[in-house]
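README, section 4: Worked example with a bound small molecule

Sections 1 through 3 covered apo chains. Here we extend the same pipeline to holo records, where the ligand is supplied as SMILES alongside the sequence. The molecule in this example is zinc ion. Nothing else about the input changes; the structure line simply encodes the ligand pose together with the chain.
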Amino acid sequence: MRLLIPYLATHGLRPFQRFFPDLLWRVEARARTAYLTFDDGPTEEITDDLLDLLAQFDAQATHFLVGEHAETFPDRTRALVSAGHRLGNHTYTHVDPWSVSAERLQQEVTRTTRCLQDLTRTRVRALRPPYGHPTGLLRRWCAERNQRMVMWDVMPGDYLKTATARRVARFVIRHVRPGSVIVLHDSPVCEGVTLPALTRILETLTAEGWSFDAL
Ligand SMILES: [Zn+2]
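The generated complex, written as structure tokens:
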């Protein structure tokens, strides 16, 4: 079953995407440009090496940060912005939007955008709901504030217990399309998987003429 999750999270969601036209699943693009996104950071274990690796390949990315992690590591948060990456809101404590009260959810997202903007003096314009669980409240919150809710079209499942760097890299390389939004994680859960997978992804795709932009 676990091996199926990347396929379900990548292909299984496509029929539902048209019901949520305000959510971004993939960027309209013809050129070989893809959008790497990293959820759950910043972290002591991954962020610094991740920044070095992205810089080696001149790749930009979007980092959906957990507000309390950003406050714990303000210098890492600012380093992401200084390196040309963009930040997005991933709630303050990584709550599941489907299981907290509307009031709590509203507090979580409002606090996170404020915290990221105060730390970096930049505008934050994107939000990704934890667990990929959008709600009506979040959609309204985004619409009222000119924020974009970002989902994905390639989810290789680097956070799964069964994940290996080889499998994650192969999945991304096989499924990437022009404008793809790829989800990886800046999380200790993925230590030993995400960075070696990303090295392989960047080596292979860059050699094939792909470039990587921030949303
Ligand atoms: Zn997350």
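What to look for in the output: The chain has a mean pLDDT of 94. The two ends are 32 Å apart (CA to CA).

Section 5 describes how to batch many such records.
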